[in-house]
Design a protein that fits this description.
homodimer, mainly alpha, DNA-binding
Chain lengths: 213, 213
DNA sequence: GGTTTCTGCCTACAGCATGTAGGTTTGAGG
DNA sequence: CCTCAAACCTACATGCTGTAGGCAGAAACC
């Protein structure tokens, strides 16, 4: 059989996606791999280590997807890509996604994949030219909304009322994009408002010039 | 001892808040109540029923809090109240909150408490005079953001970067309030935009009248 | 008042999961 | 050929879930 840590964690992730996160037990995993439960303890410390391994694996895969989705994009396009990366991942890999919802251990937090994911996320928001100090709030808001939406979809909170949640996602993206473009307490907000007023003034001046037909 | 279903579920909820949701086992519960594990099975069908019972209990308590927080309030005030109700509940009763994050059984979905919670939530959003068809998207967005924020706080996603999450909450409320006040695709949006332009035009006309000093 | 029934908790046990201790096979290297 | 280490094994201690059936006290009925 010649297992190793990587193979065990890959099997665990598959199991999580197929049968649910809670179905990831040492026994079930051993059955899947065709070995005795006790044999797995030479490759992983304990069950918690298996779950943390799935978390780390998922983090890297999510970062990969995010990277390809936002490559060459900025502003709203990038935001749409970011949302899609998360949503698709959560739907296609429910077990891995569930693993990401659990608190991460210190080693996971400091992993290269975690850093990569954070860097990619921040790249999306830099495209909106927010104040540096406001960036963190913006990322938290968007992250919270995405996570919350997926969580509520998962528990079926949206199943009992039409229309289906795709439309709501669209609205959510519109709102977030709008909020990022004119962020409260941001210097660019005042500038853009001023610009809007200028444009309006020009339009009005134009209209004044040609008397109403 | 003379236990009953209600007392068992109350003890289970306390246990969940104190020792964590996963610590709610039949054995631990029995220890707490000073009886043998098997004795509890005359009051609750199985462990899953205990967890679902916590869910129902929490739903009612959350509805109570929400009711008092939004009583006599509307618009932004009501939104702030709603957010506070959820956030305080999640912090003070982490085990009950965790129970609410699990899929609800059919009986819970149709319970009076569930209906009450939905009705109270909708009351908050009616204060923003959205299109009837857009109300559902607005509630979903706000619900998602609150849930997501609390989830990310719980797993410690905000712990590794300053400033602390209170400021981010404030920003999130600002954004949501703003979004609700000028909802995309809403009839009132066009009206308000038009009004803004009119005001701007007046201000500019005023400025033109007095030559630059 | 005595007997029956019901209630509420009990003991005993089967089944399955985690994790430890220590044994057996197999192949590489001196 | 002998040693050693890797990888998997069996056996077992412990703990949890859920079922079966027993027992004692209170309530209800005759």
């Amino acid at each position: 059989m010649n297992l190793n840590r990587r193979a065990v964690l890959a099997a665990a992730a598959e199991l999580a996606d197929r049968d649910g996160y809670d179905a990831v037990t040492v026994s079930e995993l051993a059955r899947h791999l065709g070995v005795q439960p006790a044999s797995l303890y030479s490759h992983v410390r304990d069950r918690a280590a298996v779950l943390e391994g799935i978390h780390e694996l998922a983090l890297g895969e999510l970062a990969d997807r995010l990277g390809t989705e936002i490559a060459g994009r900025s502003g709203r396009e990038a935001l749409v890509g970011l949302v899609r990366a998360y949503r698709d991942f959560a739907r296609e890999r429910p077990g891995r996604w569930a693993a990401l919802q659990t608190p991460a251990g210190p080693s996971t937090v400091e992993s290269a994949d975690a850093r990569r994911l954070v860097a990619l996320t921040w790249a999306v928001f830099r495209g909106y030219h927010l104040d540096e100090g406001e960036l963190v709030h913006a990322t938290r808001l968007v992250g919270a909304t995405i996570n919350g939406f997926l969580a509520l979809e998962r528990v079926g909170a949206f199943d009992h009322r039409s229309p289906d949640s795709d439309v709501s996602w669209q609205r959510a993206i519109d709102v977030l994009d709008g909020a990022l473009a004119s962020w409260p307490g941001d210097v660019t907000e005042a500038a853009e408002a001023a610009e809007a007023v200028t444009e309006a003034a020009e339009a009005i001046a134009e209209a004044e010039r040609e008397p109403h037909a």
